[in-house]
Amino acid sequence: MKPLKKEDIKQEVFDLYDDYAHNRVSRRLFMDKLSTYAVGGLTVASLLSFISPDYVKKIQIKPNDPKLKSEYIYYDSPKGGGSIKGLLSRPADTKVKLPGIIVVHENRGLNPHIEDVGRRAGLAGFISLAPDALTPLGGYPGNDDDGRELQSKRNRDEMLEDFIAAFEYLKAHPECSGKVGVVGFCFGGWISNMMAVKVPGLGASVPFYGGQPTEDIEKINAPLLLHFGELDTRVNEGWPAYEEALKKHGKEYKAYIYPKANHGFHNDTTPRYDREAAELAWKRTIDFFRKKLA
């Protein structure tokens, strides 16, 4: 059998995986429904293997990259989960204080992909902190299925407090300039939006396909850069009302909807990845942070 390509997979399979990845269907129901697409030489095993993340081959910046100084640290989150672990990354040869970026994971904890994104931010000239909201439950368990189950056991607002505490930690870090922004993906996109509401001193916020706040939008001070995938109808349905509120209150924002891109299009470990959209969105993100956190 020839290797599968993204074009071989029906959009319904990506939508089904999205439902499963966000706990809207059980694994049993997911597998049952997936079997209906195992036709024409496709097997359930091959479909599952293709749509599952590949953390071994897809890492862009290795943990031991000599251009970076990366280490795990712990910081206090008294209103959240207590002591929280995070990956702190910055250029190895920096001699000046750097602007900071909080990197917020999806709904499965600090997996290898988000650690990689944190290192990418460090390599771009920032000091980044990628926390693991699963720390109180033992941390990311090594696979996304168990990670999703663990994260579902934590209170969402307490996890928000963990990332607000990360902002305070990074802002006060001796290697940080004191100007700090946030970027997050999926659940992390919601966190990024909510931090814009909750943190008056936030320097910039970049939600990737994140859920939107419906209250206190007038409290937002940070400029927003929002990324959406055109095919991500679940998340996108809340955007018109959010945009209307941002306009009503005179907030600074810029939004991009990437054609034919799915939810999770920035994650290069799964076939939902859209290289052109992801690279453009990341370039826009880094340029935005360089401008707003200068």
What does this structure look like?
With 294 residues, this protein is α/β, with parallel strands linked by helices. 37% of the residues lie in helices and 20% in strands. It has ten helices and eight strands. Strands 1-2-4-3-5-6-7-8 form an eight-stranded mixed β-sheet, sandwiched between helices.
SSE blueprint and pairings:
Blueprint: H1 11-21, H2 27-35, H3 44-51, E1 68-77, E2 82-91, E3 98-104, H4 112-123, E4 127-131, H5 144-151, H6 156-171, E5 176-185, H7 187-198, E6 204-208, E7 224-229, H8 233-236, H9 239-248, E8 253-258, H10 275-292
Helix pairs in contact: 1-2
Pick out its properties.
294 residues, single chain, globular, eight-stranded mixed β-sheet, 37% helix, alpha/beta
Strand order of the largest sheet: 1-2-4-3-5-6-7-8
Number of helices: 10
**What is the helical fraction, as a range of percent?**
25-40%
* Largest pleated sheet: 8 strands, mixed
Percent of residues in beta strands? Answer: 15-25%
pLDDT averaged residue by residue: 94
Summarize the structure in short:
This protein has 294 residues and is α/β, with parallel strands linked by helices. It is built from ten helices and eight strands.
